[in-house]
Automatic annotation (TrEMBL):
GO cellular component terms, A-Z: cell outer membrane
Location of the protein in the cell: Cell outer membrane
Domain annotation SusD-like N-terminal: ranges: 90-220
Protein family membership: Belongs to the SusD family.
Protein name: Carbohydrate-binding protein SusD
Signal peptide coordinates: 1-22
InterPro entries found in the cross-reference section: SusD-like_N, SusD_RagB_dom, TPR-like_helical_dom_sf
Keyword terms, alphabetized: Cell outer membrane, Membrane, Signal
Domain RagB/SusD, residue spans: 268-557
Domain of life, source organism: Bacteria
Organism: Niastella populi
Taxonomic lineage of the native organism: Bacteria, Pseudomonadati, Bacteroidota, Chitinophagia, Chitinophagales
Length: 557
């Protein structure tokens, strides 16, 4: 099915050119002006495609970093100064970021860039004749704008509401509750006009079900955002999706396949996914680049790697060129924390979700250990013997424990084989063997049906009324029965549900959101001890304050 989606990706790539920071500066009037305007769905989609392209560029880097690295799920330490990058990654882990933090600033500018493009595109459509296609297109754009504003209120709290084009000028921050109400009203108003179909025609695009999933997520977090719970409203939004009959929980045997490079429109669990394709000008989704251990490039065929003329089990890996490894080896800096892995993935040997992790001794497919050639000093930079340059071959072992061997303040592990083999690695978004670049073909889900079921379960546990004969326990077991062959649960608590969400949505950008809602964000984990509650929202970036004199900084910053 993936190949049939290639045309959509080409349209998106052609619609705009993205720079390194994933920003755009394109006037929609360059496509349709004056008496020239879109009149049918295909023409409207050709303009809306620029918005999707920006979302596609924003998600795998900026959004991932600011949602995952502050959580207990992921860490990106330093390696002998490599990947220190001005402490940008480690400050996210330690909750020590400031208003000058680069990724937080990019999250603000990226998201407001999406808002601005939505406003401009709606303005472009103002002269188009009234039609069902126009109504659907505008509802689609407003839903994407609501998605951007949900992200802004989630990350920054009180933010300016800029909803028209041309912009009337700089604006003061609107209270978080007002932004919440705006997102809610925009989504509810869009629902009657949005497409209800599923499959290739609507894959990767806004539908009624995507809007309802976003509404459910908004309502589930209402207590955090506004101080007032909306659990019954969350349940109603979930029920609309459930009662549609359009979606299903992926079976245990194919759970991991949901995230493989050949995933796509045939997947019944994806409600809204962001499509990626390395054949486009910049395909994005760099998970293989960041997550795969540097000595596993050949095994997973990273970036066009091949085993050359040898059987894979006879290869001895090294950190130089050769061994059939083409292009570049994986960067490999990202890992998970042993506390997260041990809490959620060690106890149930029957849970398929444990197979998304690489930890311990590593083997070729035929069962032989993967061997790595280096020197004694290359293996351990602190080796003090006189024969440091002597060759040294070892069996690859990924250590679950991360040790700050070089610098505690810089979260630096060192720059040797020991350091680069520290930290459990995630391959949920499985490396793409068919891509000759660092980009991957895996589509990334933002909303899945299993999330809808678990959101409804949580809303019931938080006091919402059960509906359709579904209890919190039955909903959780609907998911778990498709993930493990172990016995169904006989009871469920909020802590149980929190753990289940950790197992189910690893690496999918929900952990920060979940930790805040469950009151876990101020806990100590990894190398993070900061318990400041004001860090539940990020600071207003310095460059935003410099360009808008009406902005005020968030408390604590």
């Amino acid at each position: 099915m993936k190949k049939h989606f290639r045309l959509y990706m080409i349209i998106l790539a052609a619609a705009t050119t993205l720079g390194a920071c994933h920003k755009i500066s394109v006037s929609p009037n360059s496509l349709y002006t004056g008496d020239v305007f879109p009149t049918n769905d295909e023409q409207f989609q050709s303009v809306i495609g620029t918005i999707y392209t920006n979302i596609r560029g924003h998600y795998p880097l900026t959004f991932w970093f600011v949602q995952e690295l502050p959580s207990d799920e992921a860490i990106l330490p330093s390696y002998g100064g490599n990947w220190y990058d001005g402490a940008g990654y480690i400050d996210l882990h330690r909750h020590s970021w400031t208003k000058d933090h680069g990724w937080i600033g990019t999250a603000w500018s990226d998201t407001y860039g999406i808002v601005g493009l939505c406003n401009q595109t709606i303005y472009t459509f103002r002269t188009a004749p009234e039609s069902d296609a126009k109504n659907t297109a505008i509802a689609e754009i407003k839903t994407l704008r609501a998605l951007a504003y949900w992200e802004l209120l989630d990350m920054f709290g009180n933010v300016p509401l800029d909803t028209v084009y041309p912009s009337p000028g700089v604006q003061e921050k609107a209270p978080r509750a007002q932004v919440f109400s705006y997102v809610e009203s925009e989504l509810k108003a869009a629902l009657p006009f949005l497409k209800t179909g599923t499959g290739i025609a609507t894959y990767g695009k806004v539908t009624r079900w995507m809007a309802q999933a976003l509404l459910a997520k908004l309502y589930l977090n209402a207590q955090v955002y506004t101080g007032a719970a909306k659990n019954n409203e969350c349940i109603a939004a979930c029920d609309d999706i459930i009662n549609s009959g359009n979606f299903a929980v992926e079976a245990r045997g194919s759970y991991l396949n949901m995230f493989y490079p050949d995933n796509g429109p045939s997947n019944k669990e994806f409600i809204f996914a962001i499509p990626y394709d390395p054949a486009t000008s910049n395909g994005y989704l760099f998970h293989g680049r960041y997550d795969l251990n540097r000595n596993l490039g050949i095994k997973y065929r990273y970036s066009g790697a091949t085993p050359g003329n040898y059987s894979m089990s006879s290869i001895i890996m090294n950190q130089t060129s050769g061994n059939g490894l083409k292009n570049t080896k994986p960067s490999g800096p990202r890992a998970t924390l042993s506390g997260f892995y041990n809490a959620y993935f060690k106890d149930d040997a029957n849970d398929i979700r444990k197979d998304q992790w690489l930890v311990g001794p590593q083997y070729w497919p035929d069962g032989n250990p993967i061997k790595v050639a280096t020197t004694k000093k290359g293996y351990d930079q602190f080796y003090s013997g006189s024969d440091g340059s002597a060759s040294y071959i070892y069996d690859l072992y990924i250590d679950s424990v991360i040790s700050l061997r070089q610098s505690v303040s810089a979260l630096d592990l060192g720059n040797d084989e020991i350091a680069w083999n520290m930290g459990i690695r995630n391959i949920k978004f499985y490396p793409d063997a068919n891509s000759a670049s660092r980009n991957q073909n895996n589509d990334a889900p933002l909303f899945r049906y299993s999330d809808v079921l678990l959101m409804k379960a949580e809303a019931i546990l938080r006091g919402g009324a059960a509906t359709n004969g579904q209890t919190a326990l039955s909903l959780v077991n609907m998911v778990r029965s498709n993930r493990t062959t172990s016995a169904a649960w006989s009871s469920v608590t909020l802590d149980d549900l929190y753990a289940e969400r950790g197992r189910e949505f690893t690496w999918e950008c929900w952990r920060r959101n979940d930790m805040i809602r469950f009151g876990k964000y101020e806990s100590a984990y990894g190398f993070k001890t900061n318990s400041d509650t004001y860090r539940r929202i990020f600071p207003i970036p310095t460059r935003a304050l410099a360009t808008n004199s009406k902005l005020t900084q968030n408390p604590g910053y």
